[in-house]
Structures are given as structure tokens and as C-alpha cells.
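Sequence in, structure out.
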Amino acid sequence: MAVTVDSERVRELVDENAAVEQVATGFTFTEGPIWMPDGSLHFSDMPADKRRRWHPQEGVTVLRDPSNKCNGMTLDNDGNLIVCEHVTSSVVRERPDGSRETIATHWGDTQLNSPNDVIVASDGSIVFTDPTFGRYPGFGIEREQDLDFQGVYRIPPGGGDLQLLGDDFAQPNGLCLTADESQLLVNDTVRAHIRVFDVGSDWSLANGRVLAENIGTGDMATGELVDGMKLDELGNIYVTGPKGVWIISPAGEKLGVVLVPENVGNVNWGGDDWRTLYMPASTSVYRITLEVGGNRLGYMH
């Protein structure tokens, strides 16, 4: 059985015969999956300080060593790779020609904590979370925190000064926008919940409320944590949690759990039809093919 059933509606999303497949293993802690136009999956192997590529015919190769212990990655609307780096406490843009530019390092005069996960909106805005995990040993460089809060930020289209969208999180982590971009979802690892905010025309956030809670315990020692998060094309949420990937309805109801043998750090859509959910989990990368596709973002053509 690939999925537990909390609601029969999960059967519309995951076929009863669908299987979780391990596609690669032998890593330290996998994160930041992004499906690339060449049909490969790029992902972070954080404690090993490597960025890796998996291709169904070519297997696993190393793309960047060291990787600055990069974490979340996405593609912007022009096909550039946006990367969160723990070691440098920065967000960088990597263009297909190999050039790199740093696009966020500080809030005012103070260094960011450690950008963790990142998304790109239709207008080109880059939104990222900034918890402190990259200041932990193993996952970054152990060092004191400079800021006195953990925030969510926006980089305006074309660059410029950061906009602080919210600062009342314990450890903000995975994030995503609804299909119409009227709402922003942010999960909080320590508080083990997902919050949803209304997004104003100026990107201000309002009416924050808890959408789903008790997703794990928030205890870092167990590894069963709310972390990476994506939406499908129907608005359902796929988020890491105890025993695998929790599927939660747009209203916050737990529908079921895709069972994965290792603790999952993040998820993302891939494949020709965007119906394959890739799940980096501790030492491995897994996948499952679903009955529904991912919420189409700018790079998902």
C-alpha cells in the first residue's frame, strides 16, 4: 500500500496500485528537488556539500562540489536556476550559461539566517523562507544568528531591496502560492503547522491563520517534520510529515499519507506530464506517479 486513507477522496489522487519507487540512494541528506527541461532531476545533498543530478538513463552525477550546502531550488520564469545557500546565507541566480549572481544576502545591514526554500511568482517576484537551519552543524556552518527573527521575504522582479513579508515564525520552511496567487502558504517546522495568508496587491500579507496543524511534533531529532510543500492542480497540498508525504485538502483536511521508507525533506513535480511526485528522503530519492498533476508554475510548460 503506497498511501494511507484518511478520506476516500485521496483515491482520486493516488491510484490504489501506485507504487513508491526508489530511483537513487547513497546520499547524506537530500533536499531541494527541481525537474529540469532535459528530463533530469537536480537536488541538493546538503551535509555532503554537493548538488547532484539524476537522469533516468544517465544515473547520478555531481553538478557542483562544493555547493555551499545549497537547499531549496526553483526555476524562474526565464529558465534561470534560483538557489538557496546555507553556507553563504544567500539566494543566488544561476543562468544556463554558467554565470552566477547573488540576489539576496542581508536584511538591511544584517546577514540573513540561511535561506531555505524558494518560489517564483508569475510577476517574477522571488519569495523565500529564512530559518536558522543553515547555522546548524552538518547542514551549514555552525555560527551565531545575526538577526533576531526568522522571516519570509520577497525579492522584487528585476531585483532591489528585500521586502519582509512576515517575521512571526519560529522556523519558516516550505512555501507555495495558490494557483491564482491570492494566498501564500508557509509551514513552520517548530510549530508543526501550515499557515495561509491573503496576498495584497503590494504583496503585503494579511489575515494569517492556521490551515493544518499537528504535522509531526517539531522535534528535530525525529526527522518527521513539516518541511517541503507543493500544490497539485486541484489545490491539494503535498507536504512532508511523519511516515512520508501528507496530502491535505485546500480546506486543511488530511486526506492521506504517501508512505516513504525514509524521512522526507522536500517534494516537487516532474515527468513529461508533471504527474510524478519526486520525494528526496534522507539518503535517497523516491517517486510516485499520481492521478493528478502539479500546480503549473511559470517554468512548467
